[in-house]
Every structure is written in C-alpha cells, then in structure tokens.
Amino acid sequence: MSKLPKKHQFIDLSDYGRPVARIIANSLKSTSFTPIDVTIAFVISGLVGIYCMIEGYYWAAAFFLIFKSILDAADGELARIKKTPSYTGRFLDSVSDIILNFIIFMTLWYVTEVSIWWTVLAFFGIQLQGTLYNYYYVILRNRFEGDTTSRIFEDSTPTALEGEKQKHVNTLYFIYKALYGIFDEIIYALDRNAPKGKPFPNWLMSLVSTFGLGFQLLIISLFLVLGLKEMIIPFFIAYSGMIFVFILIRKVFY
C-alpha cells in the first residue's frame, strides 16, 4: 500500500527497501505483532549496526543499518495493512530515528579523526535534509489524499486515533517537538509557502528523496564497506548545500 495515489507516485530513492518491507508486513498481518513492535525491532537493528561500527565490523554494520531502514518502512506498511494508523507510532518512529541518527554520527566521530564540531554540523545537516524531504512529501500526501498521519505543520498535539491513548500521543508529541522543532522551524522559514505552490513534479521529488533517511543510511553503509569512513561526515556537510538548491528550484518554478 502506498502513501500516495498511483498517479502521483515518484521514484523514491530512499525507499529501496519497500518491496522487502511489504513482504515483512504481509507476513505479520495475521499475527499479534503490531507496527510498534516493528519500530522497536528497527531500533534494535540500528543499535546492533552501531555496535558493529564500533568494533570495526563494517560489512555487518552496513547490513544492520540497511535492515533498520527496511524495518523502518515495514512498520508503516503493517499499520496500513492492519488499518491501525496511529500518532503514537508516527511520533515513536520519528523520535527513534533522530536518536539513532545522533548515536550513529557520534559513533562516526569516535571511529574517525573528524572533529566533533564537524560531526555535529553533519548531524544538523542530515536532519535538515530529512526535514525538507518529509515536508515536501507530506505536502503531496495531504494534497492528493494520501496517508495523512503526518501533518504539514506539527504545531499542536493531535487527537488520539482509535486504539491509542491520548497520554501516549501527548508524551511522544512533546518529545518530538523538543527534538525536531528547530529543524522544522528552519525549513518552514526557508520555504513557508511550499504548501500553496504548484504540485511538485515527480523528478524533483525523486531528487529530494536523496535526503531521505533510507538513502542516507545507504550512503553511510557504502562508505563504510569501501573503507571511506573518514569521508562520511564531510560528504553530508557538503551535500547539505543542496537544500538551498532544491528550495530555489521549488520557489522559482513551482
């Protein structure tokens, strides 16, 4: 099941794990496993990958980071298959992602000789990248009646959906805002009128999808297995400059 109607689907370069994620989700649809169980599984996979990075097992690290990305797609697939969307799952997914991202980059700092300040800058950059990608993607999903669990502007606590508790939504939303608020505000400030513009073309969304977490983890994994771990942080700092390029294209043409 897609987050967008077929007519508006684009080649999502960060979503390479979706076919396997669908297999996993379909295998779990008649079981007691919930989307949140799958979210917990991707956290475990990410932590195992981080451990492998510390120990220097870079092929294993690459496997578990990519598997984490696949499971990250599988939790949403399972929620759609079981028709159990929830804000609890949506915010838990996002909170887990940013915490794992921070640990991954601190681990890269630990296993390389890159400055801690460059590392923090790279982490800040990848979060802005991901925020822009999610911002544009959610605009499309809301405009074309796709999945609407995510909102364009997360500026108020949502009302719990059937099957979840409001106190869980409240707690996770508070944590989400504390961790993501600054990135959301920066992207909104840079392109606040995006929801009012023309529909984004598929080619632009495909380019912006290189900012997706799945693609970021793929790049990290490739650099690790190629023995280029020292280049990961400089790469993401440099690639963050494309944020301004994509926003400029959107403003000028769409």
From TrEMBL:
Gene3D superfamilies listed in its UniProt record: 1.20.120.1760
Species of the source: Polaribacter haliotis
UniProt KW keywords: Membrane, Transferase, Transmembrane, Transmembrane helix
Transmembrane segments: 32-51, 91-110, 116-136, 203-225, 231-249
Domain of life where this protein originates: Bacteria
Cellular component GO terms held in the UniProt record: membrane
Biological process, per Gene Ontology: phospholipid biosynthetic process
Name under which the protein is recorded: CDP-alcohol phosphatidyltransferase family protein
Family under the similarity heading: Belongs to the CDP-alcohol phosphatidyltransferase class-I family.
GO molecular function per UniProt: phosphotransferase activity, for other substituted phosphate groups
